Structures are given as C-alpha cells and as structure tokens.
C-alpha cells in the first residue's frame, strides 16, 4: 500500500481508543488455517492515495498457478477518516470493499500489498480485509512494521523468521524474492497460515521483486490513476 502521511495535530484520543477496541474485537475473529484446497484464482490488492483526500483501490485476479490475468477492477473515492498511525486499514478498507464488489471472478485467496498479523495489534490491512470479507488473505509488504529478524541470505528464496520482540511469537517470514534485493515481509491475514502465505508468495514470483498479484495490482493502479485525474 502507498500511504499518504499528512502532517498535523495528534489524533483524537477518543478516536484512537475506539479504533483500538475495534481492532481487538476483529483480532479475536482471525483464524490461522491452511486453505481448504489449492487455489484456482488468486487476487492481488493494492491501494494508493492520488490526493490527500482520495483513495484508489485495485484488484487483479489471476489464474493459479499460471498467473494469467483474468480480471482487473478499481474503485476511486473519498477518504473520510483522518490519518492515524497504526490504523491505516480503517482509511483503506471501505474503498477496497467497494472495489472487491466489482469483481465478476471471485478469488480463492487474496494477496494484499501490506501486512497481515505482522502489525503491533496483529491487525494489518490483510487481516482487516480478511475478517470483513470472510476471505482467505495474506500480506506481502515491502517494509517492516514491527518485529525483529535476521537478514535472510542474499539468494532468491532465502527466508528468515519475523518474531515479536516481546512475546517471541512468529508473526511473519522475511523472504528474499530476488537476488540481492531488499526482502519482503510476508504474514497471514485471515483464514490463512504462514506456510500457505510463504508458499504462495514464492509460487507467484516471476523474476521481479514483487510477486505477480501485487506487482500487477500496482501496475494497474498507475494506469487507472490516469483515468481519474
């Protein structure tokens, strides 16, 4: 996800309290489990903010394992919630849900450009969306949000664990997706486990840093921005 981080006063403490409580309630609904079967269709999801007050959310649907593009949709709309660090999923989720509703081909699993449970309260955008849609989801992020890790080896396919520094809990895996490039941070969202998230990420690599579902979602986001300008 491409985040817009506007300067401004500290967030309203009452809003932070409410959002924290909502995340805690949603966290109780997250389930870590393998997929019921091998996916036939896999989606990629990405959001960006063309202006401080608008959001563009994109879904691409690909056949799996061939990764042939089946469908691409977007939704462009206003952002109503202010920026609050740690709660970006609340800014993104409503528009992402609108984009998902436009899909004619519903995927078996969604790869989200962002974090799953590798979040301070275990509710990154992938987990948030998974709960709202009751869909298998996982996150593939370009930057760490929380946790500690040993740098994986320099070769494509090298993996290390992302660990919560306080609890020692495994919250994700750090994957070198291309030789000698910065790694990706992969974590399950909802109705998905770490092994599945990692396996599907590796299966969707085609020589780029990003796996095809999120790479193509990002690519089409740039194309769709031209339509809304």
TrEMBL record:
EC id: 3.1.21.7
Cofactor dependence: Mg(2+)
Record: residues binding Mg(2+): 46, 113
Entry's family note: Belongs to the endonuclease V family.
Species classification: Bacteria, Pseudomonadati, Bacteroidota, Cytophagia, Cytophagales
Domain of life from the UniProt record: Bacteria
Keyword set includes Magnesium: yes
UniProt entry tagged with the keyword Nuclease: yes
Subcellular location: Cytoplasm
Keywords, ordered alphabetically: Cytoplasm, DNA damage, DNA repair, Endonuclease, Hydrolase, Magnesium, Metal-binding, Nuclease
Name under which the protein is recorded: Endonuclease V
Function: DNA repair enzyme involved in the repair of deaminated bases. Selectively cleaves double-stranded DNA at the second phosphodiester bond 3' to a deoxyinosine leaving behind the intact lesion on the nicked DNA.
Gene Ontology terms, MF aspect: deoxyribonuclease V activity
InterPro entries: Endonuclease-V
Reactions performed catalytically: Endonucleolytic cleavage at apurinic or apyrimidinic sites to products with a 5'-phosphate
Site feature: Interaction with target DNA: 83
Origin species: Hymenobacter negativus
